[in-house]
């Protein structure tokens, strides 16, 4: 598996929101890929591990928690930063996000500036680790 410096994978099943987040990521100068399903996300990660993943929890085919855990338990992607972005705004979901290894837990509706600062911070830290 090839790793990617400064590349962000947006995993969001709402096509319009996926494109919007991708546009924000592109404005920051980072590379961006997208996935609309969990299966597509895992294929993208297996092909080339991104520096960061913006991950929705409610996907049509699998839970974002399961995807996060897989990312964090796979040698080729365990250093990938996971930023959960979800409508699930409750303590039980936040605790589960921490348990599966998420680096950040943000909720919808979201502040685009805050999301991009978070993505940039994690992508830059990731790209500087010499992988």
Kindly report the average pLDDT value: 92
Ends distance: 12 Å
CATH H level: which superfamily? Answer: Response regulator
- Helix percent reads 40-55%
Q: What is the CATH class designation?
A: Alpha Beta
Oligomeric state of shown chains: single chain
Number of helices: 5
Overall number of strands: 7
State the CATH topology: Rossmann fold
Order of helices and strands: EEHEHEEHEHEH
CATH architecture annotation: 3-Layer(aba) Sandwich
The Rg value, from CA coordinates, equals 13 Å
Enumerate the strands of the largest sheet in spatial order, edge to edge or round the barrel: 3-2-5-6-7
**Beta-strand percentage?**
15-25%
Global shape: globular
What class, by secondary structure content? Answer: alpha/beta
Number of domains: 1
Largest sheet: 5 strands, parallel
Q: Can you tag this structure with a few keywords?
A:
alpha/beta, 131 residues, disordered C terminus, Rossmann fold
Structure description:
There is one protein chain. This protein has 131 residues and is α/β, with parallel strands linked by helices. The chain has a single domain, classed as Rossmann fold (3-Layer(aba) Sandwich). It is 45% helix and 21% strand. It contains five helices and seven strands. The strands form two sheets. It has a five-stranded parallel β-sheet, with helices on both faces. Strands 1-4 form a two-stranded parallel sheet. Helix 3 packs parallel to helix 4. It is globular, with a radius of gyration of 13 Å.
């Amino acid at each position: 598996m090839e790793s990617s410096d400064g590349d962000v994978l947006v995993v969001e099943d709402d096509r319009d929101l996926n494109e919007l987040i991708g546009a924000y990521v592109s404005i920051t100068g980072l590379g961006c890929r997208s996935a609309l399903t969990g299966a597509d996300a895992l294929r993208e990660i297996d092909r080339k591990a991104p520096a960061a993943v913006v991950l929705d929890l409610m996907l049509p085919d699998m839970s974002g928690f399961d995807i996060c855990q897989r990312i964090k338990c796979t040698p080729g992607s365990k250093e990938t930063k996971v930023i959960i972005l979800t409508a699930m705004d409750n303590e039980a979901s936040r605790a589960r996000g921490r348990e599966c290894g998420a680096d950040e837990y943000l909720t919808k509706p979201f502040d685009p500036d805050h999301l991009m600062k978070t993505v940039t911070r994690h992508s830059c830290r990731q790209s500087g680790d010499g992988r």
